Amino acid sequence: MSDYYATLGVARDSSPDDIKRAYRKLARELHPDVNPDRAAQERFKEVTLAYEVLSDPDKRQMFDMGGDPLRGFNGGGAQGFDFGDIMNAFFGGNQQRGPRTRARRGQDALIRIQISLSDAVFGAKRDLVVDTAALCGTCKGSGAAAGVAPVTCVMCRGRGELQQMQRSFLGQVMTSRPCPQCQGFGTTIPHPCTECSGDGRVRTRRIITIAVPPGVDTGTRIQLSGEGEVGPNGGPSGDLFVEIAVQPDPTFERRGDDLHCEVAVPMTAAALGTKTTLTTLDGPVEIEIKAGTQSGDELIVRGKGAARLRSNGRGDMYVHLSVATPTKLDAQQTDLLRRLADLRAETTQQVTQSAEANGGGIFSKFKGAFGPK
After folding, report:
1. In CATH terms, are 81-248 and 253-325 the same topology?
2. What is the pLDDT of residues 200-229, one digit of tens each?
3. pLDDT one-digit tens code per residue, 303-346
4. How many Å from the N-terminal Cα to the C-terminal Cα in the chain?
5. Which of 58, 90, 210, 351 has the smallest CB count inside 10 Å?
């Protein structure tokens, strides 16, 4: 068995950083892309194998104790052998898989945007400025410099993995692991693209136009397939998710598919009844306020609420009425109200207190809302 410390030219008490520096120095001198000599290639394999053992704490400890770190076996005992390797070997987990592709799917991206209530109700189109990863225009995703192609890995000979025989209490089993030289790709890139540093993609800014469907609400996410980041080395793009946040509206409050607003009605109009024009998201709508309207009464304007997402129809608009009592009266107005009170025999001495006053009052409303149905 080789002396891995001597192969790397380091002492037995060298730190992991010292071992790494020694390996990098030798690899720069012996790598096949730099030194095509056949003897240098063999020496490069020995150096890489030595680094693999000494950079792994468990393998290094086994080697220091006199065992074979590549077999995990010493004098008949199964030291350091992974039982998972045994199970994989017997049940197909370590069958040769071949080199893996460099191209991988890109990551998904998430963008949050704010829209008005009107856009949420009727839908809209928005232009989004997206900073994301795009295909490198220089190498077209290959990761290699112009005129350079990936070369077959000399360590695994293009297989992307290394196999070794190990002994266990079940006998000899064949295990495999990704090639440390090519990381399992089966090829190496001697001269990476200078534009993308071998990744096959670059950061770029682009504008995407999205259609916000009618009926969205805060928290709704719109999925745009294939509009996320391009994958490394020309891999397929991920998806872009756009999360909606609806801005508060000064007039309307949204509750599900319905819109709610409050309208203050003058005391005389509430007593006599009137017609008035309301502003809706669709435009002006005329409503009738019946005589005798009380604070807390509500009117329903059908079909003027929010659109139902992924469905037909719209919710309703609820108009909550509030009777406005005048706070400042001139002498003539005060005299008229006193005369009206005399005509209706309404004086302060006749004010009554009852939970059922005026046909129910506020306590009746609470009973109707929360009492037994």
Report:
1. yes
2. 999 999 999 999 999 999 999 999 999 999
3. 999 999 988 899 999 999 999 988 888 999 889 888 888 888 77
4. 88
5. 351
